Fold these 2 entries.
Entry 1:
Amino acid sequence: MKESDMIDHRRLGRELELFASDPLAGAGLPIWLPAGAAARHAVEEYVRDLERRAGYRHVYSPPLGKRELFELSGHLGYFADDMFPPMRLSADDEFVLRPALCPHHALVFRARGRSYRDLPLRVAEIGGMYRAERSGVLGGLSRVRAISLNDAHNFCALEQVGDEVREILRLIREAHAALGVRPAGFRLSLRGPGEKYVGDDAQWARAEELLRAALDGVDHHEGPGEAAFYGPKIDIQVVDPAGRESTISTIQLDFDKPERFDLSYTDADGSRKRPVMVHRSLVGSMERLFAYLIEVHAGAFPAWYAPVQLVLLPVDDGQADAAGDLAGRAEAAGLRAEVSRAGSLGARIRDAAGRKVPYVGVIGPREAADGSVSLRLRDGRGLDPMPAADALGLVGAVVAARSGDLLPPA
Ligand SMILES: [Zn+2]
């Protein structure tokens, strides 16, 4: 077996029951199973919390909208090849599955009058969108047709763009550290020859200049032809264990959509001004992110987003109640815990190891009698029996710190 096959997220996803693909559901339309959904839920909660603390305001918007919305946004003019064909309800009522969240977020900005005091207005959503990928390129989570994007659009004054982009870069680094993402490089993605781009040269030059300034002191390379159709961007690349490069995080400057949607705010002197729209994703789509995380961690996620964090093993039926009681206390403390009773102790320990569970708690007659538990860590280390409350405190401290280690700092 080749190294790249051994750490293929599709194989691990099947073995760890993280997600399933079914031809009846359709190619590129994977289903997140309970274990994968638990991990994703933990990551989504973390991302929303990080954003909330950084001044983002979360919204929900529908994954489909009227054809006219995507004509106005330019997507149907510039991006139609990547979209599913429109759905016609009646002669004058057509809907499209959206290929991006920006049009809806522009409508959030436009939902009421805006003043300079509202800026930067940071509209965030982990939202659904669709891409009509050809079936030949689909597989697992890395190329999908239904995408859940960690997205935001920051509407700001031109003079705020530099600080805004630098702050987004800081949030990206924080999220990468917590998740265990190891960026391979930063790319300044620029226009290339012969492609379709909107906006005039002066806008492109100004946007490039702003992004270049924000990258001052950051090691990066330039990627001609890698820009979005509406503007240049900063892409943060990762490399999977098979050597394939993909973009996880992105920051894009857009002068075009504020024009198209006629977005404006009242400045301090009473004049009407056009905001700049910064499209940004801290961690990309949940699908591509997890394709990467499954591979880079070989399925052994940091404890804070492990699907099951603690498995409790009674040595025999005499300790079943003690194990059930401790599992209940762990759940009440916000941890994801299970009791495993079927089979020999050795088989149950091997099963938990195979599922990459970070903590196994063994409860024998002595532990049951004095309310203690013996923790075994995923990496093979075993700890002396300790009071159950201390064990829950240890696991809880590692989870709360979103640490990649399995023991709290000494
Ligand atoms: Zn966008």
Entry 2:
Amino acid sequence: MTPPSPDIKIATDTPIRAPSPVPVDDAVLPFEVASLDLRGRLTRLGPGLDDILTKHDYPPAVGKLLGEAIVLATLLGSSLKFDGRFILQTQTDGPVSFLIVDFQAPDRLRAYARFDAGRLKPGQDSGALLGHGHLAMTIDQGPDMSRYQGLVALEGGTLEDAAHEYFLRSEQIPTKVRLAVGEEWRGGGDGPRHTWRAGGMLLQFLPKAPERARQADLHPGDAPDGVVQHTVEEDDAWVEGQSLIATVEDVELIDPDLSGERLLYRLFHERGVRVFAPLPLRAKCSCSRDAVSAMLASFAPGDRAEMVQDGKVEVTCEFCSSVYEFTPSEAGVE
Ligand SMILES: [Zn+2]
């Protein structure tokens, strides 16, 4: 049985013949290396990411993890058409027990994380922060379309590991993902200013002949000693693709002075790389006073009455921290 595909393949737009050397933030850059049958996307996030993470004032480790999840969601969700929606969420037993990234096509991003500050320790990587549980990816292409959900177990690994597991098991498309998040300090008139930046790359091997897409398993399994392991010879083009993406440094993915086009050229120039038009991204929550009011109206009268504090009802949007205030009568409290 073939699982429904979340359609992460790339549309063949008109390629840009003369790529801009100027770095563009908050965008996804689709690309193709035709000679190796590789397709991919490169995400660069600056002010949009900073806006999402700064509104919550997360501890650095939590901000970094949520940043990685945001980059991953942009790499996977940016091919959705029209009013499609891609939601990535994790539910786990680690210090960060829940995180959600909501990407609404064509360009809107919002996200938040829940964490237990008492369980944060220095040096925890994303795997340690998440712990065990699962990662769910939901694609909603509108009311007339069926929803698709993909699930991956999280077992102490990173989000990159989870993405590889997902593509190996569910999509069976040879895929490599790189995610990087960094904090930048820049001097200014009123002292150094802190900002978040992130970048990521998705690389996929999509040969016309399906037998070329064979993949080595992520885990060699626990065969008894002396048993000859069945080894899979990967296609030379995919071996080369993987070795190229493995050379990408975190600093290259987040460097504000290195354009996406230059980074792609640096990696693939010997094979020829075609870069397509960038897809812009922005941090924008979809909450509104009307939507919060409708949510309040759906509560039982007793629950609404319990929400009254100091003579008013206050509701905070978990995504963007906007606070909506209602009088008891506006909130439907008798
Ligand atoms: Zn909001």
